TrEMBL record:
Coiled coil: none annotated. Pfam families: PG_binding_1, SLT_2. GO terms for molecular function: peptidoglycan lytic transglycosylase activity. Keywords: Signal. It comes from Salipiger profundus. It comes from the Bacteria. This is Lytic murein transglycosylase. Residues 27-316 form the Transglycosylase SLT domain. One of its GO terms (biological process) is peptidoglycan catabolic process. Residues 1-18 form the signal peptide.
Amino acid sequence: MRLPLLLAVLALPGAALAQDVPCGGDFRDFIEGLREEAVSMGHDPAEVDRFLSGAEIDRKVLQRDRGQGIFQTPFIDFSRKLISQYRLDKGRELANRWDEVFDRIERDYGIARGVLLAFWAFETDYGAYQGDFNTLDALVTLAHDCRRPEIFRPQIFAALELYEHGDFDPDRTTGAWAGEIGMVQMLPRDILESGLDGDGDGHVLLKSSAPDALMSGAKMLSGLGWRPGEPWLQEVVLPEDLDLSLTGLETEMTVGEWEQLGVKGREGRLDDARLPASILLPQGKGGPAFIAYPNFRVYFEWNQSFVYVMTAAYFATRLEGAPVYEAGNPDPGLSGEQMMTLQKALQDRGYDVGGIDGILGAGTRAAVRDMQAKLGLPADGWPTQALLDRL
């Protein structure tokens, strides 16, 4: 099962921008508008016509766009579902098979191989399933749809450039429903900006060349702000008396300051005492605990789902040799319907929860933590029936 890369396309508040971006209306008029804009950008009219001639609306893309229920799944369940023994074994096998490529990535970008292997596993099951949606149709469909046209319309023109370079076939190039292509799932504009010819054949082929896909993914992560040679996530043990209101991405202290409060690595020492870091409790005080270093935040530039980011970052540590996390005994979470009821109650009290969608995102977590503190509950950011009852 593929999880959409760059889930920012599902989370960015683009309504204001969308007012200035053409969308909706008669589809043929919409395609003509794309053609005129492409020609005005300097593209050859005949090439533009050939590129757009077969574009169609794909209703299945719209269905997928509105059906993201998997991100309501709690971290423990989600991570156990995605991290299998097969993916661990296959990841280690591929790390050995492409050892030279990963060595280049580590040398040039300072990114550990486990990071890219985790994305490769989750996005396409190491390239086994890269999506069968026609990419141009997917992009055109989402650009025509007026939810986020400002995200997808530029991707059409980027795909046009790839077509002119001979690296995109409007009839045959396929990928994910949201327009991502290749083994690590990159949008056309990201391919233009970060695509690398990792195997030296003169082309950037992210669907068929592992070196191209891995090198391109590394360059993209580097461009998003990855700090070379630094960690990203580590499991920790917390002292009983830690003020839980300090947890969450909203609070950063140095590693040394966390150590002074009694935070310890579950396996081995914490990293450089000068690094800024946050303590994360994905399922509250009863579940696993992690310290998130600066590189963890880069994951949100790749994907906006907290549970996906936590799982991808944790899986990367497993591929680098970390043990299975201590799951603990977290309090039961809320159902999707209960979560929406909670979000509505928080929104009515003036909190910005990022939408009533049933998903425990960053805004909802921050609001929950603040409300827990006000009500005298453990302020761990994990919404429970007890909190809902109090509200």
